[in-house]
């Protein structure tokens, strides 16, 4: 049995579909984990959500999607507890336009209230329910899977949701040595140089494994397979790449590879 982990999708539905076609997943036995941030920045957030929702509901035992900080920002905006989702830096205005069919214009508090009412009425109810149902972490025999990071050596269940969603902790990236932890949230180009080895673009250092390989037009969408450490990547221009990673694999996963006779 394998686990296939997909990093931050950010509305790139075509790349997501291409990536899912690449991976050799046995639906009846292999697990598929999405690290969150299905929405914002890309051209088709609703399409991404719809596809992952359908995958999850058709095979709930083997498909898991975590909550990302972008889903949390959308929920906070809808619930009236925060407005950061509609600031330009998040890319939320693109998701708003894709669901609402109109441009987001904010010049006053009234505009904010109108935008909130619009997105509540336009976004499918099942999409909102899906966001609210998303767990903050997943765990299997190979690793922990979180959106952003851990509170150092603590189990995800002992780590606050705020940290699981938002953390950017250099100490975690450089020093974490617990059970392998696969995370997204921070593009790997912003992670410490020492863990960014090879041409594949992911981050591996001790037991911290980052697979958010960016979200601009030239960035791949990445999926890491465990315990064999095969990396699958799809690009916006239709290119596909596969890498067999052999260096800097955490010792616990090396043992699992050996047990499974993966060489």
Q: Would you report the number of β strands?
A: 11
CATH architecture descriptor name? 4-Layer Sandwich
Number of helices: 9
Shape summary: globular
Protein model, in words:
- It is built from 9 helices and 11 strands.
- The protein is an alpha/beta fold and 263 residues long.
- The two termini are 16 Å apart.
- The mean pLDDT is 94.
Q: What are the key terms here?
A:
263 residues; alpha/beta; Purple Acid Phosphatase, chain A, domain 2; 5-stranded mixed β-sheet; 9 helices
Write the layout of secondary structure elements.
Layout: E1 3-6, H1 13-22, E2 31-34, H2 45-58, E3 63-65, H3 69-79, H4 92-100, H5 109-122, H6 125-133, E4 137-139, E5 144-146, H7 161-166, H8 170-175, E6 181-183, E7 203-205, E8 208-210, E9 221-226, E10 230-234, E11 240-244, H9 251-259
Parallel strand pairs: 1-2, 2-3, 5-6, 6-8
Antiparallel strand pairs: 1-9, 4-5, 7-8, 9-10, 10-11
């Amino acid at each position: 049995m394998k686990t296939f982990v997909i990093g931050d999708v950010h509305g790139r539905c075509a790349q997501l579909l291409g990536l899912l076609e690449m991976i050799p997943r046995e639906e009846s036995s292999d697990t598929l984990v999405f690290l969150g941030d299905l929405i914002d920045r890309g051209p088709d957030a609703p399409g991404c959500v719809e596809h992952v929702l359908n995958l999850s509901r058709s095979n709930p035992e083997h498909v898991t999607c975590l909550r990302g900080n972008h889903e949390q920002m959308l929920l906070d905006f809808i619930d009236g507890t925060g407005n950061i989702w509609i600031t330009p830096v998040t890319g939320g205005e693109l998701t708003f336009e894709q669901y609402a069919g109109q441009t987001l214009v904010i010049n006053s508090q009234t505009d904010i209230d109108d935008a909130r009412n619009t997105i509540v009425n336009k976004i499918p109810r099942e999409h909102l329910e899906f966001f609210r149902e998303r767990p903050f972490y997943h765990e299997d025999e190979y690793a922990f899977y979180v959106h952003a990071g851990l509170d150092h050596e603590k189990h995800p269940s002992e780590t606050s949701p705020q940290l699981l969603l938002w953390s950017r902790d250099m100490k975690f990236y450089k020093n974490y040595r617990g059970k392998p932890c696969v995370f997204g949230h921070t593009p790997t180009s912003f992670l410490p140089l020492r863990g960014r080895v090879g041409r594949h673009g992911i981050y591996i250092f001790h037991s911290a494994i980052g697979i958010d390989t960016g979200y601009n037009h030239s960035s791949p969408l990445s999926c890491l397979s465990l315990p064999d450490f095969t990396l699958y990547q799809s690009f916006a221009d239709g290119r596909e790449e596969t890498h067999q990673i052999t260096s800097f694999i955490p010792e616990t996963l090396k043992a699992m590879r050996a047990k499974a006779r993966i060489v």
